[in-house]
């Protein structure tokens, strides 16, 4: 096993919430991941935290695996996949959390694959006026943005501070816009200064336009999840 494979190795663990497949080393965890929440202690929730139904021998209490709050069966009956916490199987969640997790399913099922497959952009570093044609993709462990052309860059996702998606075709109603690039700011390890990169879709590759737009849309969603995981 290589050093990279060893760092990315995973193990199966059991928690009160269910089985999880997690990285053996915490430093290898996905930047989009969320930690399991602590459960509200049973003694602190005599009633459902949604509908206020009193718990008794008939009305049992359940904990939402995403928020850790305490609910009755009616308010916490859905079992939904929760890949951001590395659960192997769908887990019990309250209605509000289940809705959030269901919306994230598209990212994990589709958009994450788009990011890993990559797309081609003209990349301009800093104040340079010489863009370089590069293939940009997310690493398989989701921890790096990898850029390959005549040059090679690996940007650690957790070092990214801002992402601005560039669009064209704006209308007053907000429709018919198309993503054509992005501006990325990140910190180089060991430096407090921000480095900027501009990504522009290659207009001379017509077959690349749709792929680039899809990749940028996926990157926009990834950025939202990244900010959410930082705020937890």
Automatic annotation (TrEMBL):
<keyword id="KW-0479">Metal-binding</keyword>
<feature type="domain" description="FYVE-type">
    <location>
        <begin position="42"/>
        <end position="97"/>
    </location>
</feature>
<dbReference type="InterPro" id="IPR052113">
    <property type="entry name" value="FYVE-type_Zinc_Finger"/>
</dbReference>
<dbReference type="InterPro" id="IPR011011">
    <property type="entry name" value="Znf_FYVE_PHD"/>
</dbReference>
<dbReference type="InterPro" id="IPR017455">
    <property type="entry name" value="Znf_FYVE-rel"/>
</dbReference>
<protein>
    <submittedName>
        <fullName>ZFY21 protein</fullName>
    </submittedName>
</protein>
<keyword id="KW-0863">Zinc-finger</keyword>
<keyword id="KW-0862">Zinc</keyword>
<dbReference type="InterPro" id="IPR000306">
    <property type="entry name" value="Znf_FYVE"/>
</dbReference>
<dbReference type="InterPro" id="IPR032031">
    <property type="entry name" value="ZFYVE21_C"/>
</dbReference>
<dbReference type="InterPro" id="IPR038632">
    <property type="entry name" value="ZFYVE21_C_sf"/>
</dbReference>
<dbReference type="Pfam" id="PF16696">
    <property type="entry name" value="ZFYVE21_C"/>
</dbReference>
<dbReference type="InterPro" id="IPR013083">
    <property type="entry name" value="Znf_RING/FYVE/PHD"/>
</dbReference>
<dbReference type="Pfam" id="PF01363">
    <property type="entry name" value="FYVE"/>
</dbReference>
<dbReference type="GO" id="GO:0008270">
    <property type="term" value="F:zinc ion binding"/>
</dbReference>
């Amino acid at each position: 096993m290589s050093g990279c494979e060893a760092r990315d190795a995973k193990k199966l663990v059991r928690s009160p919430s269910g089985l999880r497949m997690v990285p053996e080393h915490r430093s290898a965890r996905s930047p989009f991941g969320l930690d399991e929440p602590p459960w509200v202690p049973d003694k602190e929730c005599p009633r459902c935290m949604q509908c206020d139904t009193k718990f008794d021998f008939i009305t049992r209490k359940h904990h939402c695996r995403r928020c850790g709050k305490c609910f009755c069966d009616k308010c916490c009956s859905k079992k939904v996949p929760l890949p951001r916490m590395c659960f192997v199987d769908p887990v019990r969640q309250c209605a509000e959390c289940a809705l959030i997790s269901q919306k994230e399913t598209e990212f994990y099922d589709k958009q994450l694959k788009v990011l890993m497959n990559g797309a081609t952009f003209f990349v301009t570093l800093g104040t340079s006026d010489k863009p370089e044609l590069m293939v940009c993709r997310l690493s398989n462990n989701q921890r790096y943005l990898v850029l390959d052309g005549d040059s090679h860059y690996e940007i650690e996702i957790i070092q990214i501070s801002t992402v601005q998606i560039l669009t064209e075709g704006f209308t007053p109603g907000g429709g018919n816009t198309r993503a054509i690039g992005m501006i990325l700011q990140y910190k180089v390890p060991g430096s407090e200064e921000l480095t900027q990169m501009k990504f522009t879709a290659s207009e001379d590759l017509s077959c690349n336009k749709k792929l680039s737009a899809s990749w940028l849309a996926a990157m926009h969603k990834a950025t939202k999840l990244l900010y959410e995981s930082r705020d937890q």
